[in-house]
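Write out the 3D structure for:
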Amino acid sequence: MEGMINVLRSKVSIIVLIVTLLFLLIPENVFADGVNVSARSAILMEQETGRVLYEKDAYTQRRIASITKIMTAILAIESGKMANKVEVSSRAAGTEGSSLYLKSGEEITLENLVYGLMLRSGNDAAVAIAEEVGGSLEGFVSLMNNKAEEIGMTSTVFANPHGLDDHEKHYSTAFDMALLTQYAMDNEVYRIISSTKVHKAPNENEKWDYVWRNKNKLVTGLYSDSTGGKTGYTKRAKRTLVSTAERDGMSLIAVTLNAPSDWNDHISMFNWGYENYELTMIAHKGILDEVRKEPYKGKIKLHRDLVYPLTKSEKEEVESSIRLAAPPDKDDWNEPSAFDDPVGMYKVSLDDKVLMKAPLTYEIKKKESKGFWGFFKNLFSLELKRDLDG
């Protein structure tokens, strides 16, 4: 009997040890904040303000595969050449991997190449775009890295326009790719292309047209709030995914790198973000009624709405403050030159951390011109009034 008890105790100890080891093997932060994420790196960012709502190892450099093509697409769109016809080179047509099956010598507009790039992840389209926009593939890569620096992608190096594993130094981070997507989503043409489910393009070599269906399952029906994104996969990078969503006026960006269950990761992050955060109006643009001291009363203007994603508890803790410069010693504060711009700052803080700042200006009513046209306008008004009175 005692022997059986000892055997049972040994089995229980082994089970406990196995369970403990399994939990130790789960990547750090996988259950953080109630978000279940399989990816090695992940981030959830609010689009308008850039606030990071959730992150898991988001600043580690990793291979990114075809989400590289977000940069390729936005550079093509910004080039102003979208209507140009591009002759496909043999180098472009021979690019390995995911393909539109373009033929050397055929002509296709840059716009249609971008659709094929984003929807079907055509590597041949990526090279054709690079050669048209950058003059050469190598020249385009230089443009990519210059744009990355401009956006603030400090941990990113691009070596090609498609994301294939043909260079060792081609990598980014989840955070940097969220920054790139935030930048790209400010462009209306990019937003349209990224969210397109099906696109048709003329095929000059065949009687039938090209028809490209979006590989992004979130866009094509898996997630009703989806507004776009880009898929990616290589043997070394594994599954990568960038996606965007919008609900109740709040737009979110999700990025995962090396994610075995990327669709579920993104749905989980989006749903968690919308359940826990709300894009909150902190201050409306216009004249600030709360400023009641002269000479500033009724004349201090905020030029944009201040909105920020906040949790319910944060809404009660967020603080706003207005700081104004001392008024100048002048006889007439209604003179346009009486104040320098800006005259102050509107600051929003949470837990002693500044969330956002906005400049404030001094607004005065402009005096109506008494020139010839003002004089003529007065005459016209008087004449009109006399006619109406009979």
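The CA atoms of residues 377 and 383 lie 10 Å apart.
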